[in-house]
Amino acid sequence: MTHRRHLSLLVVIASALLGSCAALPYTADLSAREIRPPTMLTSSPIPRTLFIVVRPDRVPDDFSIRDSPHSIRSFRGYFARAIASTLRDYFLDVRIVPSPPSAAQLATTGPSAIADVRSDGIENRDLPTASYTYRVLRMQWAFAIRPAESDDYLFSYGGIGTSDHAYQTLEAGVEQLMLSAIAGFLEGWTEQQVFRAFRALPTPGSAAPTGAETPDIVDAI
Hints:
By secondary structure, the protein is an alpha/beta fold. The protein has one domain. 31% of the residues lie in helices and 29% in strands. The protein is built from 5 helices and 10 strands. Strands 2, 5, 6, 7, 8, 9 and 10 form a 7-stranded mixed sheet that branches. The longest helix is centred in the last third of the chain and has 22 residues, at 170-191. It is elongated, with a radius of gyration of 21 Å. The protein starts with a helix and ends with a strand. Mean pLDDT is 85; it is low at 1-22 and 206-215.
């Protein structure tokens, strides 16, 4: 009986190894996917329009995962939508743009804030533990935000998002990675009291009405 159990265990391990080696390159298409990260409740949004600047040279779109046979498609929009969803309750309006808004745009929009983001793509990274070494998805990224009337950032953040060591699909692994990245970001956002700092700023000109509870996300990229 013991010999049979050992033989069965060897068969399972061999099958897993063969399946891993036989895995074909796969491309995860994120064009229609989005996540809804958890956010904090706010009594009223900051009376500003937030422009999230997602430049093509700072956030890749289609790329191969480093140290992996797999690749990602339409990551830029997915990444931008995740950031926008995270911040939509904090601001009167949220717009995703490929370049900084012009002075003319800002003049017609009213009081605004500008956020710059960067992602260094995704890599496959070893995660050693006491018993095993797992492979996880990992992304380094950065975020910085300022009032439109200032050149100085009010808040900047650099962090890392990682997937769990187990996920059923590549898309699920990327979602785990993004949720991890957002969780670290929100921790810094809360600790630095960014919402309160923006609320304390003098609002240039006349503020737009603050009655909107769920602002639209305008995606221009």
